[in-house]
Design a protein that fits this description.
The protein is of the alpha/beta class and 231 residues long. It is built from 6 helices and 10 strands; from the N terminus they run E-H-E-E-E-H-E-H-E-E-E-H-E-E-H-H.
Length: 231
């Protein structure tokens, strides 16, 4: 998969190249990351990328010309998706990451700065994405979140691909508890069922724990899971 990021802080993405399994995926050629700085496409002597908002108001607005020029410099593949990082976007969900990882060969991620984008920049995007109901100084952290979440889903990134089937949010339910040795630690015991060797009982226990944990911690997800599970 090709990942192209339009950002005024391209250096922020360098650590991804060496980040555990994500870094190894880039090293193995499962994904490639390219950054594009709109400042490199500014045409004035000061490389200006922002300006005051029409109508007045606080802050500066990212200008359309350098962003469009940066976007138009990117080789675009037929199966691509353009994502704009924005607190006004749709909340990021695991199903979005799976869709982007499975349906597309290229993601272009637009990162904002300052007070926001010139509204015309939004026209470049297929989707607007938010990682929560809060505001950051730029779209770099949300973009890195998307990149991490997508690349880990690419075939070959994880050593045990089956682990993707059991983790939180794969089926709307949160993941069940995990334990390892020792069986007893400071008076805290590993549940006996996990030590029983009865795989059917273990599967039932894990399913029950998933439902209980989701109901307690994320009743919104539990309601969605119930609605989806009802014939």
């Amino acid at each position: 998969m090709r990942l192209d990021v339009i950002s005024l802080a391209p250096e922020a993405f360098a650590p991804l190249q060496g980040l555990g399994v994500i870094g190894r995926a880039f090293g193995a050629g499962l994904a490639e990351l390219h950054t594009h700085n709109p400042r490199d496409f500014a045409t004035d002597r000061y490389r200006k990328v922002d300006d005051e908002p029409y109508g007045g108001g606080a802050g500066m607005v990212l200008k359309p010309e350098p962003v469009f020029a940066a976007f138009e410099s990117i080789p675009l593949l037929p199966r691509r998706r353009v994502l704009l990082m924005s607190p006004q976007g749709q909340p990021l969900r695991q199903e979005d990451l799976r869709r982007w990882a499975g349906d597309y060969d290229q993601l272009v991620l637009l990162c904002g700065h300052y007070e926001g984008f010139d509204e015309r920049i939004r026209g470049l995007a297929d989707e607007e994405v938010s990682i929560g109901d809060f505001v950051l100084t730029g779209g770099e952290l949300p973009a890195m979140t998307v990149i991490n979440g997508v690349v880990r889903l690419l075939p070959g990134t994880l050593g045990a691909a089956a682990s993707l089937d059991e983790e939180s949010h794969t089926s709307l339910l949160l993941e069940h508890p995990h334990y390892t040795r020792p069986a007893s630690f400071r008076g805290l015991e590993v549940p006996q069922v996990l030590r029983s060797g009865d795989h059917g009982a273990i599967a039932r226990w894990r399913a029950e724990q998933q439902q209980q944990r989701t109901l307690q911690r994320r009743p919104d997800l539990y309601a969605r899971w119930q609605a989806q599970s009802t014939p």
